[in-house]
Amino acid sequence: MPHLATDDGINLYYEEVGSGIPIVFVHEFAGDCRSYEPQLRYFGRRYRCIAYNARGYPPSDVPQTVERYSQDRARDDIRCVLDALKIDKAHIVGLSMGGFAALHFGFTYPERARSLVVAGCGYGAEPAKRQQFLEETAATAKRIEDLGMAKAAEGYALGPSRVQMQNKDPRGWHEFAEMLKGHSTQGSALTQRGVQNRRPSLYDLTDKMKTITAPSLIMTGTRILPASSRGC
Q1: Contact (CB, 8 A) for 41 and 18
Q2: CA–CA distance from 15 to each of 32, 34, 40, 113, 179 (Å)?
Q3: Phi, psi of 47, deg, nearest 5
Q4: CA 39/CA 150 separation, integer angstroms
Q5: Mean pLDDT, consecutive 10-residue segments, the chain of 232 residues?
């Protein structure tokens, strides 16, 4: 089971397929590297594809304190993946939580990004809804801790942005829901508190976003679905 070490001593699980120009896939809060299986199968025919589990998502390590989780840390873990695998620069593809990490990577390490795909990135950014976002992420973390991830996942998988997948692709949704139940209770709660709840609003990052030099594809819509539901 392949792991790589970050510069702060956390072991991240990763999967790799193919050869050629590298693509790194960064998953959303409710996903993990398995969410990108369709993309790895397709792009692995012509590219070196890497998907990894963020810290807090077994079989990656689950740090025990919230201080080990942050938006900056999620950004730097992408860099650590590149460094550990001796990759100078790569296409970086991120969805939702992973989209935020990809965005931050793009303006912090512009020389390491061949291109960026920033998908479903923006939840909680609107100034008028900022307090609501902070309350929702805090409540989600508490619910996960109180119920345990296996039980909390049942409600999360039926949320407004998820039930559309159930309607569109019942088999794919069931697979997604079962994987979500297996996530770490502690890792998921700490990710909500350390990464989601504390990340800056996009409105506070406009000057930094203007400095991005890599070709960038920004994808957004009314529904956020797991990467596995998007095909290739």
Answers
A1: no
A2: 11, 9, 9, 20, 16
A3: -130, 160
A4: 27
A5: 96 98 98 97 98 98 98 98 98 97 98 97 85 94 97 93 89 95 98 96 94 94 55 34
